[in-house]
């Protein structure tokens, strides 16, 4: 099991930027894909971005709604994954969760494939 702690959320105006961080501990971080998900009020948790494990070349994949605006990255030396969010829109308002994949060396986008979750950090974008 891995422990995840997110930080960096807050209130920002539309068009602004935020950078979320997720610090991991408890197992070999670099062997697992890491993802970001978000949940808006009254909606299901939705995929945002995923980055593959270190040996997978750090390949990334994004939801269409954030492609070109968000960037996921990881620093395996610091056991940390980041989500840089630019050109934020009010519809990006949600609680953002960091998650670690259940299976080493696999990279998928379904929330059920991720076994460890952070506590979430609120992102609010005002119009």
Please work out how many helical segments DSSP would assign. 0
Summarize model confidence as the mean pLDDT: 93
Largest sheet: 7 strands, mixed
Classify the secondary structure makeup into a structural class: mainly beta
Computed CA radius of gyration, to the nearest angstrom = 13 Å
Q: Give the end-to-end Cα distance, rounded to a whole number of Å.
A: 39 Å
- The ordered string of helix (H) and strand (E) elements is EEEEEEEEEEE
Q: Helix share of residues?
A: under 10%
Shape: globular
Q: Low-confidence stretches at least 5 residues in length (pLDDT < 50)?
A: none
What is the count of β-strands? 11
Describe this structure in words.
The chain has 127 residues and is mainly beta. The protein contains no helices and eleven strands. Strands 2, 4, 5, 6, 9, 10 and 11 form a seven-stranded mixed sheet that branches. A hairpin with a 4-residue loop joins strand 7 (70-75) and strand 8. The mean pLDDT is 93.
Defining key terms:
single chain, 127 residues, mainly beta, 7-stranded mixed β-sheet, 4-stranded antiparallel β-sheet, 11 strands, 49% strand
Q: What's a concise summary of this model?
A:
This protein has 127 residues and is mostly beta strands. It has no helices and 11 strands.
What are the SSEs and their pairings?
Layout: E1 3-7, E2 10-13, E3 18-25, E4 34-39, E5 46-51, E6 60-62, E7 70-75, E8 80-85, E9 94-101, E10 114-117, E11 121-126
Parallel strand pairs: 2-11
Antiparallel strand pairs: 1-3, 3-8, 4-5, 4-9, 5-6, 7-8, 9-10, 9-11
